[in-house]
Amino acid sequence: MITLNHYLLLSAILFCIGLYGALSKKNAIAILISIELMLNAVNVNLVAITKFLTPGDITGQIFALFVIVVAACEVALGLAIVVAIYRDRSTVEVENLDWLKW
Amino acid sequence: MMESIGIKYIWLVPLAPLVAFILISLLFKRFKMLSAVTAIVSMAISFILSLDILRLVLTNHEITMNNPIEIAVPWIDINGLFIEAGALIDPLTAGMLFVVTFISLLVTIYSVGYMHDDPGFSRFFSYLGLFVFSMLGLVIANNYFQMFFFWELVGLCSYLLIGFYYYKNSAADANKKAFITNRVADFGFMLGIIILFVNFDTFNFGKLAEAINASSDLALITLAGILVFVGPIGKSGQFPLHVWLPDAMEGPTPVSALIHAATMVAAGVYLLARGFILFASSTTTITFIAYLGGFTALFAATIAVTQRDFKRILAFSTLSQLGYMVMAIGIGSLTAGMFHLTTHAFFKALMFLCAGSVIHALHKQDIFEMGGVFKEMKITGTCMVIGGLAIAGIPPFAGFWSKDEILLTAKANGFTLLYIMASITAFLTAFYMFRLIFLAFFGEKRSDFHAHESPLTMTIPLIILAVFSIFGGFIGAPFVEHGYASYVYFGEPHHPTPDLMVMVSSTLVAVAGIFLAWLIYIKKAISAEKIATQFAPIYKFLYNKWYIDEIYAWFFNKIVLGISNVFNWCDRYIVDGIAHSIAWIIRTSGYKGRYLHTGSLQTYGLVIFTAVVVITLFLAGPVVGGVQ
Amino acid sequence: MDLQVIAFWIIAFVTLGSALAVVYLTNIVHSALALIMTFLGIASLYLTLHADFLAAVQVLVYAGAVSILIVFGIMLITRGEGRMCETNTFGKYKYTAFVVIAALFGVISYFIIITPWQVTNGIVAEENMGTIGEVLFNNFVIPFELAAILLTVAMIGAIVIAREVKNLK
C-alpha cells in the first residue's frame, strides 16, 4: 500500500536533489533547472496532501496550477537575465558573477 | 448699569489694532497711505471705546478698585490647568487704557509725517498695530498668565521696532540686547507666577488676592513677590537690568516715544499696581521695591547729566522717572505711582516727539552740534520747553503734581532717605533737562544745519500733548475734589494732606536746577569743561554710565565664557567622544564585516539552509529529543 | 503486490534517477534531456494521484514549453568549443552543500515520519477537470486574472531584458 509518507518522502528527495544542484553547480542554466526540480517537488507535495487528507477538495491542485504559472514566468525571466548577463560578461559561471558584494 | 458700548465691545479694544496689523502686513504693504489710515482708524476705534469705558468708570461709582467688572472666557482647560482670557475693568485699567490708546493714536498720526520717506513705511505701521494690540491685551488682562503672554508679545514688538533699521549693525545689536536682557527678567517673572499657581492654583488676580490675604506663608509670598518683581526690573529698566533701554534708542523716534517712554516700559509699573497685594503683603518685598526704585531714579539721573545724545538723555530721564514710579509703589502709594505714570506718559511722549521733530529736521542727535534751533522751530521748541518744565516739576505743569505726591507720600510714610534721594533726583532732572534744552534750542549754532518746522501731522500731536502736559496734572492736584486718588487706590482711598513745605522745597529745587543750567550753558558763568576736568574721574565714571555695560561684558567674557569653555570641552571630548567611539566601532565592524559578503549567491544559499537546519533543530529540539 | 504499488515504485525510480542525472551529468544538454524525463515522471505521479488535468498541464507546460525554453537558452549561450562534457561542472561547494543538504533531508524526513497525518480515505472523482474549471472561475477568479497579468508582464519583461542593448554613444 502506498501511503502519504511515500509521496512526501519522494517529494523531499526531489527537493533536496534540486537544492543540491542549485547550490553546487557552476552553470547558471543548471541552477535554473535545479530550481524547476524544487518547484515540481512542491507541487507533488500539494497534490498528494490534497488527495490523502481532503479527497473531495481540489484546492491543492489549483495551487499547483498557480505554481506552474509562476514557474513558467520564472523560467522565462531567468533565462532572459542569463542571456543578458552572458551578453555583458561572455560567461554564465556563477562563481564569476560576484557583483552582489561591497 | 452695564449698558456701555465700551464694555460690550471690550474685546474690540485690543483686537482692532491686531486686525490692522494683519491687514497691513498681508494686504496693504504696497499702499503707503492705506496702511497709515488703517492703523490710525484701528487706534481711533480703540481710543473711542476706551474713552467710553473711562466715562463709565468715572460716572458709575459702583465700579471701584475693590469691585471691578470681570469678563472672561475659558482659554485653556487641560486637566486641572485652567486659564481664562478675560478683561478686568476697574479705574486702574480704564486710566491705563486711556493713556495707551491716546498716546498710540497721537504717535501713529505723528509717524505719518516722521516716517513718510522711509522704505519700511507700511512695515512700521503694521508693527505699531501689533504692539498696541499686545499692550492693550496686557492692560485688560484679568490673570497673570494672560499678562505674561502679552508681556512677551510687547517684548517681541519692542525687539522688532528697535531693530526697525535692521541693516544698521548698532540697531541689530541693540534689539538683541533688549531682547536678551528682557529674557533674563521674564524668566524671573515666569518663575514667580509658576510659584503662585502651584501654591494657590489660580492665575486670576482677584482670586489670588483673596488667597494671598488668607495665606500665612510669608516666605513664599516674599519669594513670589520678588520673582514677579524681576519682570518689571527688566521691562521698566530698573537697575541692574536697565542697560537695554538707552540702546533701544536705535529705533525710530516715534517708537521711542510710544514704547520706550510712555507705554511698554510703564507696563512694569502697571504690573506692580495690578498685583499690588502680592508685594504689599511682604514688608521685605515692598521695601526692596522702594529702595531699588529710588536708587534707579538717582542713578539714571546722574548719568543723564553727562550724556551728549539727545535721545539718550531722554532715555536716561525715562529710566529715572520709572525709578520714581517704582519707588512710589514701593513706599505704598499705588495712587502716586500710577498718577506719575500717567503724567509722565504725556510729557515724556511729548519730549520724545519733539526730539523726533528736531532729528527729522536736522539729521543730528548730538546736542553739542545743535544750538539756536528755537528760532527756526518755534512750535517744537515751545513744546519742548513745556515738557521740560513738566518733568522738572514747576507748578502748575503736570509733573509737579505727580512728583509732589510721591515726595509727599515718602515724607508722610517716613522714608526720609528716599525723600532726600528723590529731591536730589528732582534737582538733577531739572538740571539735565534744561542743559539739553539750552544747548539744543538756545545759544548760537554750533554746526552747519538748516532747520525747518515739521509738517502738521507732527506738530498737531505735539500741541495736543503739550496741552495735556500743562493741564494733565490737575486731575490729581490736592485741591481737586474727586480727583485721581478717589478712583485709583489700594484698599481705601486716602488723600495725603498737602504739605506746603514739600511743595515749596521741590519747586525751589527744580528752579535751582534750571538756574544752574542757565548759569553754565547760557550765561557761561561757570565753565562746564572746567568742572569736567576738575572732577575728571567722576565725570568719566558718569559719562561711561557707571561702567555697567563694561562690567557685564567682563562678566560674560571671563566668567560665563570661561565656564562655557569647560562645558564645551566636556561636550566635545567626553560626550561627543563617547558618541563618536560608538559610531567608530560600528563603522569599523561594518568595514571589516563586509568581507563576509563574497557576492556569491550560492554561498548565501548555503548559509541560509544551514541556518534553516540549525534553527529548526533548535526550535524542535524537545520534539526531536523525544520529549514531546 | 498491487499494480498501483508497482507503478509507484517504477515511477519513483525513474523520476529520482533522472533527477539525479540532471544534477550529476556534466554535459548541460544531457542534463536538460534528463530534466524532461523527470518532468514526465512527475506527470505520471500526478496520474497515480488522480490529478489527470494537472498531469496534462505538466506535460504541456514543463515537458513541452519549459524544456524547449531551456534548450534554447543553452543554445544561445553555450560556447562549447568542442568540450561539451565540461559545460555543467560542479562548483566549490560540491561536498559542503552535500553535507548541509543531507542534514536538511534528515530533518525534513524525520518530521514527515513523526507527523500523525489525519488520512481520510474518501472517494476521489475519476474526472475532475470540470470541478477545477468551476473552482478556478468562481473561488479563484481574481488570482486567475492576476496570473494572466503576471504572464503578460513576464513576457514583456523577458523581451525587454533579453533584447540586444543598442550602443547609446
Describe this structure in words.
The complex is a heterotrimer of chains A (102), B (628) and C (169). Chain A is mainly α. Chain A has helices at 4-24, 28-53, 59-89. Chain A has one domain (4-90): Helix Hairpins, CATH 1.10.287.3510. Chain A has 3 helices and no strands. By secondary structure, chain B is mostly helical. Chain B is 72% helix and 3% strand. Chain B has a two-stranded antiparallel sheet. Chain C has helices at 3-24, 28-48, 52-77, 94-114, 129-138, 141-162. Chain C has 169 residues and is mainly α. Chain C is globular, with a radius of gyration of 21 Å. The mean pLDDT of chain C is 87. The longest helix of chain C has 26 residues, at 52-77. Helices cover 72% and strands 0% of the residues of chain C. Chain C has 6 helices and no strands. The A-B interface holds A 19, 22-24, 94-95, 97-102 and B 594-595, 597-602, 605-606, 609.
State the largest interface: A-C, 71 and 86 residues
- Secondary structure: number of strands of chain C: 0
If you compute it from the alpha carbons, what radius of gyration of chain A comes out, rounded to the nearest whole angstrom? 17 Å
What would the CATH topology of chain A be?
Answer: Helix Hairpins
Question: Outline of chain C, from the CA principal axes?
Answer: globular
Number of structural units classed as domains of chain A: 1
Q: Determine the mean pLDDT of chain C.
A: 87
* Continuous helix count of chain A: 3
Structural class of chain A: mainly alpha
What is the residue-mean pLDDT of chain A, rounded to a whole number? 88
* Second CATH tier, the architecture of chain A: Orthogonal Bundle
Number of helices of chain C: 6
Oligomeric organization of the protein chains: heterotrimer
Global shape of chain A: elongated
Relative helix content of chain C = over 70%
Number of strands of chain A: 0
